[in-house]
Amino acid sequence: MLYLDHAAATQLRPEAREAMEPFLGGIFGNPSGIHAESRRARAGIDDARERIAALLGAEHPLDVVFTSGGTESVNLGVKGPVLAGGPAASLVTTAIEHEAVLASAAALERVDRKATVVAVDGLGRVDPGDVALAVDGSTRVVSVMTANNETGVVQPVAKVAAAVRAAGERVLVHTDAVQAALSQAVTLDALDVDAVSVSSHKVGGPKGAGVLVLRPGIDLEPVLHGGGQELGRRSGTPDVAAIVGMAAALEVAAAQRDGLRRLLDSERDTFEERVTRTVPGAAVTGSGVDRLSQHAHLRFPGIDAETLLIRLDGAGLAASAGSACHSGAVRPSHVLRAMGMTEAEARECVRFTFGWTTRVGDGAAAADIVASCAEALL
Ligand SMILES: Cc1ncc(COP(=O)(O)O)c(C=O)c1O
After folding, report:
1. What is the whole-number distance in angstroms between the Cα of residue 179 and the centre of ligand 1?
2. Which of these is catalytic: 255, 324, 325, 364?
3. What is the pLDDT of residues 20-74, one digit of tens each?
4. How far apart are CA 153 and CA 73, in angstroms?
5. Is 325 an active-site residue?
């Protein structure tokens, strides 16, 4: 099986599995307790917190908030400061964000907070000037993703941050770095942001863990209320094993990032070049703009993406249409619609995402499978 759906989920890295092992059996205490069993669990969390603080550029380990994944990190990073900012505080975000952000924006609107959604250009890029124009005196959070999960198009987050800070003093910049974290450095300083959300299972860690890393002193209304864990910012007994596995996965990802990026650039480019050469009309989305090394998003005019995906699956290649269809309903992607594609065009697009298990030759092998499956449908 050629697995080209790393943007949906990645295999667990052996280093993460090994790090988790003691916490799946022997070390089982609740990390909030006083006794030795609890202290052993807490030591695992404390160690993971310190390592993740260093990896993502937090000033202090306590600026790292553990969550249940990318969705929860984003909910906390987007809604938390707006809800803590009083009745007039508002959000500015973009039309191509993941549903975690856009549904958070809608939830804020339901409690009478303003949420402004900024459009993108035909290549799926956000213009920092447009974001700055949307900022006003009420804006508390600006959330712009580091790179898009469907197209892989990298957003000018640091430029957005500079532009909006010039426009409004109270503005916090949050970025959803869930997809970018595999192949890019997503520290607070590298992105010049105040808050960054990352998910474990996109970088070779287990599912069900995520992190929101903050600049010091950011006031957040929690999304989950309860026992006051994570300094009151995220209640609930943490999944120690998943957190420890996430720290190990992020560490390996950082250590291998440069080499992996070179491999992915080469395999992805070979793949795109061969597919566009052999399949009539096939076109790369966002061609010519800065994209994540692992993403190839293509439109196959005249071919229904779902039919192609079923054929590819039969031929041993796993890919997907846009974001994973959680509800089973295949909807035309809001990202592609925001870029100006028609619904019919959006239904002709397939996302192929390489990852840490990609090997030399995968790009060419995948292209040959895509070419033969697509040809049969034309
Ligand atoms: C850009 C982006 N943000 C957030 C999420 C949600 O992350 P999780 O699956 O860990 O909840 C995803 C998942 O696909 C994503 O691609």
Report:
1. 7
2. 325
3. 999 999 999 999 999 999 999 999 999 999 999 999 999 999 999 999 999 999 9
4. 21
5. yes
Give 314 Cα–ligand 1 centroid separation in angstroms: 27
Q: Which of 66, 67, 98 to mutate to test the pocket of ligand 1 (most atoms within 8 A of CB)?
A: 98
Distance CA 163, CA 127 (A): 10
Residue nearest to atom 14 of ligand 1 (CA): 8
Q: Give the predicted TM-score (pTM) of the model.
A: 0.97
The pick from 10, 71, 148, 207 for probing ligand 1's pocket by mutation, whose C-beta has the most ligand atoms within 8 angstroms, reads 71
